[in-house]
Every structure is written in C-alpha cells, then in structure tokens.
C-alpha cells in the first residue's frame, strides 16, 4: 500500500510542476528577492515570533498550493483533535496532550471520558510547593544541608528539552543550584559528575516515563550506591518523575517525592510536564517555569486558531515538506545566533527526527515519498567558521536562522570597529541568508557562489522564559503539522526497538560471562562475538593478517 | 570544464554498475554478512586503531575497484607530497604541513627551500617551558596569584580541535586549571565567562592565524577592557597564538607571550601546532600534549607508508566516496560510544565539511559529482534515544561507530541487570550496527526494519593522549585522502568569504548609525534594511497585515 491520499492530490501534482519551474534560472532566489514587497508577502508575526520565509524558494502559486494541501489534509482540524484529547497516536492508542501541560484555560480537556486538567494542575501545584520548600531550606538533604546540585538522570526526551530550556535561561538561574545531566550510561559520565558534587548537597531526579530504560536504571543504581557509600539516605536525596502506574511509581521504593507524568505525554514533547517542571523549577524557580509555560500556551493557541495562511508553525511545516519532497533537500540546519540557544539544535534533532523519521502512515501504509530530514546545527557565528563552506559552495541545505533582539548582557556597549558584539552578531545574521540566497558571480570558479540556497529567519525579542516557551511550542507544533501532512504518527518510535532487543541479548551473554569466566559466547553472529571477546579480553585480538578484501 | 580525470576512469564506470548491483536484494547487507570471514576480510588493525568496515555495503570487487582509483589518482604519492612540503594548497600557493607539527623524526621537512623542523621544535620548546613555568608558579598574574582559569579566544579551527582533545582528556587535567572557550561574538558568551572567572587568576589566549577575524578581535577587546576595569595588566594576562608576521605578531602590543603558527598550517588542521599546544599544555601538562603528538605521528606514518589495501584512512576515504557518489548518501553520522568524545563530531564536522564542501577541483574545473557530506553526531547511547528512529526506519545515512575498550573510570564495577555500565554501553555499541545492517521482517509495517544501513566501527584502546592523537590524525588523513580522490583542495575555504564581505558592509552601516542616530540605512536590499531597523528599534516593527502570500 502507498500513501495515495497525499500524492494523488491535485495540488501535489501541480507542486511537482512548480518545483521543475523553480529550478529555472529566472526563478533563482536572487530574482525572487527582486519581487516588490517580498518580505511583506512572505513573513508573519505573531505571539512574539517573527517568521520570515522570504528567502525560501517559494512564490505565491507554491504557497497557494501548499495551503490547499493544508486544507485537504484537514491539518487544523487534526491539530484540534490532538489538543482536545482524541487518540491521535493511533498505533499506541493514546492521546497526545503536551499542550494541556501548559494550559491555563478553564476549559476541560477530556481524555478517555475524564477531564485531565485537575491532575495537570495538581502536578503543577506539587512542583511549585516542592521547589519553594527546597529554595526556602524547608526541604534539605539528610544531613540538614541545603541542596546545591541537582542531577537529572534521564536520556532522550527525559532530558534534551530540559537541557535546551535550562541553557537558554541560564542567566536567570539565581537559586544557588547547579544543574547536571546524567544521560549516557557511559561510566565516565557518572564518574565525572560524582567528582564534581558533594553527596550531602545533591538531589537526584530520576526521569523515565516507562521506568524500564536500561541506561537510566543503571545510572540510578550508581547514584544509590554512591549515596549509600557516603552515608546519605536516598529517600531524602532522590526523587522520581515517571508515568502514573510505572514500576517507578512505587511508594515502597524509597524516594523523597514521586511526580507523575501521563501516558498522553510523549517523551520528546514532555518538557512542559513534570519532566521539565521539576528540574527547571529547582534551577530557575517555579515562577519562571510558569512564565515559560505561558509562552508555550500562547503559541499553542496561535497554532490551533490562526487561519492557515497566517499560522506560523503550519506554514513552516508546509515549507519543510516543500523543501523535502519537491526540492529534495535531505537535511536542514538550525542556526541560532545566540549561544544560549546552543541546545536548541540537539533538542529539535530529537523532536523532528524521532517524530518524522518514519516510513509508514498512521494506518500502516508504506509512504511513497521520503519524510523526515536530518537536523543538525550549531550557534552562529560559530557555524560560519565551521561548516558554512559546504552550505555556500557544496551541498545545499535549508537553514532556520534564529535571531534574538535583546541579548541577556545588554548593558555591555564596548565597541570594536564601531559596533558592539551584539551588533557584530547581527551583521552576520543579516548577511548570511542574503549571501546564501543571492550568491555572487566570479570568473574564478573557486570564488563563484551559486546562491539559490533557501533559509527562513525567525526572530524572538529576548531570552525570557516566555520567548523560550514560544520557540519550543513553535517547533513542537511545526513537527506535529509536518507529520499530519504526511499522515504519519509523530508520537511513536518503533524504530528504536530492534536495537534494544539485540542489546538485551548481548547483555545477557555478558552477564553470564561475568558470573562464569569460562562461559563461551554463543552469539551466532561472528562479528558480535568478536566484539564481545574484545570487550572481555580488553584488547582487539590479532586476526588474519591479510590485506583488506583479499583472502 | 568538468572533472573528467576522475569520472572517466574505467573503475569509476565499473563502480556505477557495481552500485546498481548492490541495490539488488541478494546484496542486502544481511546477505553480505553471511559471507565467510566477512570481518577478517573487511577490517584492519594498525597503530592502536581497529577499523571494521564489514557492515559497509562493499564486496571484494567494489574494494578492488576503489583501490584501483587510489592508485590511478596517486593518492599516496600526493600524501607524500603534502608531508614533504610541496605546495599542495594550489589556490593559496602554500604547503600543508600539519604533519610536521607532530614529527619527532630527525628528517628535514623542506618548505620553500628551508627546513622548517627547527622552527617547529622551537615552538614546542617554548610551549614546554612556558607551561611548566605557569604550573610551577614562576609565571603568575599581575597580582602574583597563580593562573586558575585559561580562556581561549578563537573561533572555528582556532578552538574546535582543542575543545575536542581537552574534552577527551578531561579526566587527566590535574594542573588546577579550568579551560574555557570564548568563540562566539555573542556578548552573552563573554558575559557568561566573565561572571565565572576572577580577573587576577585568568590567562587569556587569543588564537587567530590571520589576526583579522572580527569575532576574535571583538572578544579580545572585551577581555582587555575587562582586565583594565579590574586593574589587571593585560601584558601579564594575555598571550597570542598567531601566524608569523600577522597583525597580532607585533611586540609593541602588550602580551605575555606570542607563539607562532605558520602559513603552512591550516586552521582546521592546527590542533597539533601552538593553537592546540598552548592551551592543552596548560590544561594537561606539556608531557601529555607531547604524548598526544606522538599518537598522531604514528597514524601519520601509517597513512603515509601503509600500502593502499592496508591503509586505514585511505580505505575509509574510498568508502566515503563510494557512499557519497555511488550509493548517494548525502550525510554521515559520527557516534562515539564515549561521552568524553562528545566534541569529536563538531570537530570533524568542521574538518570534513570545510575541507570537502567544494564544487571545483584544485585547478578550477567544476566537479561533475557532488563531494563532501553533511556530518553530524552525538555520543551513543544518547543518539539512540534521539535521532536513531530516523536512522533505522527513515532516511538512511552511513555511520561511524566509535568504541573505547577501557573507560577512564574502569574501577567502577557496580552492575545492573548483571552488567557494568561500560558493558551496557558496549552491548548497545555491538547491537546497533547489526540492527541497522540486518533489519527485521515484521508483518506490521510500523515494526518492519528494512536494514541495509551501512556503518563502520572504529575501536581505540582507551582515552589516553596517544589514542586521541591517533584518532585525530586518522580523521585528518581520511579527509585529505577524500579530497585527493576528488581532486579538490582541502586547505582553502573561499566559500566563507561572501558572507564576511556582506557582514562588513552591514557593520559599517551600524557603526554610522551608532555615531549618528539620524543616519538612514542605505542598504539597497529592503530585507537587510528591515533587519537593521529591527535591531536599532529593538523590536519587529508592524508590517503589512495581509495574509502570507497575498497582497
């Protein structure tokens, strides 16, 4: 089965023709940019987010056709189904209600016949009370000392969003708390953190929706042994954020607190739930976490209610599909011109690549177009001095440039070459999309810039919690809209299961070998067996000395 | 002009046919892996680096044809030309002698008729003496206090390699020195570092080959004003690493020391020169820096002398071209199963994308095949919980998996599910390439794994300076060999110039506006003018309220 609903749309076929026309020299971006009022026509401004897609390879016809697809695919209706609690996650028969976690509306959200807003509000109140009691010194460690270090134990969606927000708001962290992330099972991660903290003043937050994640379980075990070795009571120093009813939601296991998340919140969409709420409220204070939620809520309302032609995440999703399926760009760069946003690219990398890295529709039909892009990025101007050579003269890829009008350190007005650092940063932010789009002729082929490389520019006013919440919710809504265009399920991730099963089999063999050094590895696959032996012999054993490819 | 030398080779044409055959079901990786002695035939072991390409989509014929290209393109002769000082950087008429910076051989290296080894050794001796005097307390700050923080001011190649090595060897840093990187011109980077250091105990290292980099100049200016404001003498707290004869190589400008690099060392290949040598010797001690150099030297000798069929970086380069031009993968992941190697992907991202992100040959002919890949990566297992969904079930891309046999914290033997954290890490390292290669049938299309996704696995023994030096030199040599296959110049980067020119024009307008608030921006491009106004008015001004794409 294919995905005919999408590709048999008349708009889809017409867009194919538009894409061919777009490759003609007359439609080079430098010519499109000569269009009168190009920016006015191809930009939107809502809820503090300015979205400029004037440097995308689109024109009015392309946009009209894309908007036609948006209507035929009922994108906004589907988004409303999602926010109102329908089980849009079909394969797992679940709702996807990350938007409810930042709702301050009085309206009910009904999931499985029950209004979930009371439990959402209860969790928020628990987080508020708990973080305030830690900050006031009412809750301390088992030796009576206040908490100074908070270690988040969690991997993937259990930390990437929180790391993004914490890094973006780092300059507001005035609670005397340092935040650490223990994600990788690599023992050097635990070892590195253990050497930088004091057990008496450290609070460990174990975050796992299922509470079955092997890496997180191993790191929790390390943390508990570390506390015991240092005479610290884990029941006073460790708390859990987990799905209601998971193996971690067990009051008989010692814990300072258990905060719930719910089946209807996916890991990569969970930063506005207790997953982000507990660590961010400890790091920044609950009030700032709530401001962050309110920024996200505003963008959710925009994503839900703005008409298609003025809906920023919806438009961004349509352009992403255009770039992906019609202009055939396999990758997309995210380049924030603010180092505080340095963890946005890895967060969006997970959000987008895990949500849209699929080959089948919601209903199990094999897709006949590729979906999902490779997402990568570094802050500008750093990226200019790293991989922009390829962006300008090698393989083209679309870019999201992100600008922040006010830096945090806005009082610093020292100038070089007549401009402040922040102005220098912006001179580059303004120049790069133009250089990529316009290119430059040169008789020397080594100095020729082909141009015609598309980008969007997003501008937020500042590094406030509200702005960061809006930016997060923009990318979440964009990702969901992309998935709805393709008809895929952005909320499952079956593609990570096979590797887990295979690792589990290897783990069992290692455990047997640990118990019995004479155990012979029984893996039928000789390559896996070789690596098992390498690990246990602690060196690569001499192998056949022949040259590669020869007997 | 095209690049007929390469694509008219008989091997190139035969490889096209091989690539078509490789897409047949009988050549699915799961079938190739059933070949007897697959690993023995498709792996190499040299100088502490094990390179397993058994999970690449290659067979004996493909390998033989690729090796035929290596010979016809005279890859090893070209590499020897490079290491012996010939001006292989044709467009800039320069040598490329990063290998000399880690040579401990008594042989001369002649560049422009002069043996450069004495100046290389002189710099090394200067670094040794200087770093030891800092560590012994003979050299202190201007108030007599020892240095505790070292801030590297530099961008792109002036810090990415150093950041990789410093992060990889972080557990050996026993000199009481914290290393910071001030790369981005973003004022929040300077502001953040300034809030974490004491001016009296901070040493600033300004690194710029040309000493004309705008970002570095602006940050140096910030640092000098910061010192002056705090009553600290910059002549005792700031040193420079720069090209001999650059504007920074000026003894009249106050500096504690000036260390030279040379025209024949490219920024992205400079970590074994004073660029890496000064900060790494301060952070780790000179002896460890020298061990790192010796590890790199061993790999250089291998890259230079090993026959094609046993030459690891050369083979890796051939496979990269095969993946790029014949199997049409546009991107490559680098996934080290060691968080200490977390800065390897961004370093290789620059090294590879800036070196190979080209569209013309050394001699100015336009390439008729794409070259260069998009490089990205995160440590495993983190990446599994982030973007591996797409790797398994979405767009395929080749991956370099990297394993480390001994972690730094090897004494930690706490187990979970019967295995140590390090064993859990390896269970995943072993499982992922197999899962990607083999895939799995499933009646449910959502749980079907197509497999046939290629990868290499590289194994190093430990996180020692020697191993890290070898790994660095492997990727450098691989990148150079790739460029030599394509016939491009890996040592220039004209693609970054256009953006700089455009930013410079914008900077001038900003400077005028700073002097005269009534200055009207004269940029003929209305989009750039809009952003200039946004920056100076400190908000996005209301624009035409029409819907996107409509008048």
Explain this structure to me?
The structure is a homodimer of 551-residue chains. Chain A is 44% helix and 12% strand. Chain A starts with a helix and ends in a 14-residue tail after the last helix. The first copy, chain A, folds into three domains: 4-33 and 42-72 and 306-339 and 353-406 and 415-441 and 449-465 and 482-488, Glucose-6-phosphate isomerase like protein, domain 1 (Rossmann fold, 3-Layer(aba) Sandwich), CATH 3.40.50.10490; 99-291, Rossmann fold (3-Layer(aba) Sandwich), CATH 3.40.50.10490; 497-537. The longest helix of chain A has 22 residues, at 465-486. Chain A has helices at 4-7, 10-22, 29-32, 38-41, 60-72, 75-83, 117-136, 160-168, 187-194, 214-229, 234-237, 274-284, 286-305, 312-326, 344-356, 388-393, 421-438, 465-486, 497-515, 526-537, and strands at residues 43-46, 49-52, 110-111, 114-115, 149-153, 178-182, 202-208, 238-243, 258-261, 331-336, 374-376, 399-404, 415-416, 419-420, 455-460. A six-stranded mixed sheet of chain A has the order 1-2-15-12-10-11, sandwiched between helices. Chain A has 20 helices and 15 strands. By secondary structure, chain A is α/β, with parallel strands linked by helices. In chain A, helix 5 packs across helix 14 (312-326), helix 7 (117-136) runs parallel beside helix 12 and helix 14 (312-326) packs across helix 18. At the A-B interface, helix 4, strand 1, helix 5, helix 9 and helix 10 of A face helix 4, strand 1, helix 5, helix 9 and helix 10 of B.
């Amino acid at each position: 089965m294919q995905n005919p609903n999408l590709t048999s749309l008349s708009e889809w076929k017409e867009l194919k023709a538009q894409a061919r026309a777009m490759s003609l020299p007359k439609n080079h971006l430098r010519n499109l940019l000569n269009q009168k009022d190009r920016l006015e026509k191809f930009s939107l401004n809502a809820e503090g987010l300015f979205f400029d897609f004037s440097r995308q390879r689109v024109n009015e016809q392309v946009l009209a056709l894309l908007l036609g697809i948006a209507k035929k695919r009922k994108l906004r209706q589907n988004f409303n189904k999602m926010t109102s609690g329908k089980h849009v996650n079909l394969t797992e028969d679940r709702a996807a209600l990350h938007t409810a976690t930042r709702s301050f509306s009085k309206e009910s959200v009904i999931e499985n016949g029950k209004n979930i807003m009371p439990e959402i509000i209860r969790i928020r109140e628990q987080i508020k009370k708990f973080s305030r009691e830690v900050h006031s010194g009412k809750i301390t460690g088992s030796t009576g000392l206040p908490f100074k270090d908070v270690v988040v134990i969690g991997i993937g969606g259990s930390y990437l969003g929180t790391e993004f927000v914490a890094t973006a708001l780092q300059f507001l962290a005035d609670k005397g708390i340092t935040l650490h992330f223990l994600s990788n099972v690599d023992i050097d991660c635990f070892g590195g953190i253990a050497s930088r903290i004091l057990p008496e003043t450290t609070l460990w937050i174990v975050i796992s929706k299922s509470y079955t994640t092997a890496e997180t379980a191993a790191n929790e075990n390390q943390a508990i042994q570390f506390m015991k070795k240092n005479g610290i009571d884990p029941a006073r120093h460790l708390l859990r954020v987990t799905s209601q009813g998971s193996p971690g939601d067990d009051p008989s296991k010692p814990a300072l607190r258990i905060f719930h998340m719910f089946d209807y919140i996916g890991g990569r969409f969970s930063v506005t739930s207790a997953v982000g709420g507990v660590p961010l409220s400890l790091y920044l204070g609950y009030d700032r976490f709530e401001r962050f939620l309110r920024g996200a809520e505003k963008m959710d309302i925009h994503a839900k209610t703005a008409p298609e032609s003025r809906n920023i995440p919806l438009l961004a999703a349509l352009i992403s599909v255009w770039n992906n399926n019609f202009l055939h760009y396999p990758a997309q760069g995210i380049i924030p011109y603010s180092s505080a946003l340095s963890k946005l690219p890895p967060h969006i990398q997970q959000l987008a690549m895990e949500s849209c890295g699929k080959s089948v529709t919601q209903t199990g039909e094999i897709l006949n177009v590729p979906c999902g892009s490779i997402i990568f990025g570094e802050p500008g101007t750093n990226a200019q001095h790293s991989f922009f050579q390829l962006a300008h003269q090698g393989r083209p890829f679309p870019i999201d440039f992100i600008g922040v009008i006010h830096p945090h350190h806005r009082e610093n007005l020292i100038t070089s070459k007549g401009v402040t650092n922040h102005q220098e940063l912006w001179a580059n932010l303004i120049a790069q999309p133009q250089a990529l789009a316009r290119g430059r002729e040169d008789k020397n082929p080594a100095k020729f810039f082909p141009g015609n490389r598309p980008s969007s520019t997003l501008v937020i006013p500042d590094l406030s919690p509200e702005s960061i919440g809006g930016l997060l919710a923009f990318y979440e809504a964009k990702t969901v809209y992309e998935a709805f265009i393709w008809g895929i399920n952005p909320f499952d991730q079956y593609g990570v299961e096979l590797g887990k099963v295979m690792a589990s089999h290897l783990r069992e063999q290692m455990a047997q070998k640990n118990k019995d050094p004479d155990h012979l590895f029984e893996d039928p696959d000789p390559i896996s067996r070789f690596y098992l032996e390498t690990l246990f012999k602690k060196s690569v054993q001499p192998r056949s000395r022949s040259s590669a490819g020869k007997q």
